[in-house]
Design a protein that fits this description.
Length: 196
């Protein structure tokens, strides 16, 4: 599915960063960034332009090839790794920042990945996430269309419980990201830090 979605010349979700991520840049520490489910690279490339060392992982090698083209066009370098998140070793105390923007996974895998994220952050590192909530199913403006892949504040508070939540918000906002995220959307946002 994802290779097919990313196979065109246009960028499915645009080339600009997610605006929640962009709004939080001053709250992100310097250092190494891991972008989960990064697709065509809009967020990874933007973070590299802000001086971060970025690794982008995604199931789709087609998407990551476009991410590399976008990076080249914008004069930055990113590392891309085509991999299923079920097989990716996030590591321990390795990342200063982990970014998850609309990275929707089956619930069992999501819980495992989120646990790995809490382990993979360095002390003082932060995780930033934006995702669709179950209410998104009635809006039809983007997202997986599968209830078990949605997230809400309570779910994230539980799954990322070792982290300290600096920002946790659930509500609706207008999203305009390419052709697949367009209109009023039900979302949850977090910025959470690993205790030092």
């Amino acid at each position: 599915m994802w290779d097919n979605r990313y196979s065109g010349d246009t960028y499915a979700y645009g080339t600009e960063p997610n605006n929640f991520l962009a709004s939080m840049i001053d709250n992100l520490p310097p250092g190494n960034v891991l972008c989960l489910g990064e697709g065509e690279g809009r967020n990874a490339v933007w973070l590299a332009r802000q001086g971060r060392a970025v690794t982008a992982v995604d199931l789709s090698s087609v998407g990551l090839e476009k991410a590399q083209r976008l990076a080249g066009a914008q004069g930055v370098e990113i590392t891309t790794i085509p991999v299923n998140l079920s097989e990716f070793e996030i590591g321990t105390d390795r990342w200063d920042i982990i970014i998850s923007i609309f990275c929707h996974l089956p619930a069992d895998l999501r819980r495992i990945v989120h646990q790995r994220c809490t382990e993979g952050l360095r002390p003082g590192g932060v995780m930033l996430l934006e995702a669709f909530t179950p209410r998104q199913l009635g809006l039809g403006t983007g997202g997986p269309g599968n209830l078990e892949m949605m997230m809400d504040a309570e779910t994230l508070r539980t799954e990322l419980s070792p982290l300290e939540f600096l920002h946790l918000w659930e509500g609706e906002r207008d999203i305009h990201e390419g052709v697949f995220h367009n209109g009023r959307s039900a979302i949850v946002q977090i910025l959470a830090r690993k205790p030092e």
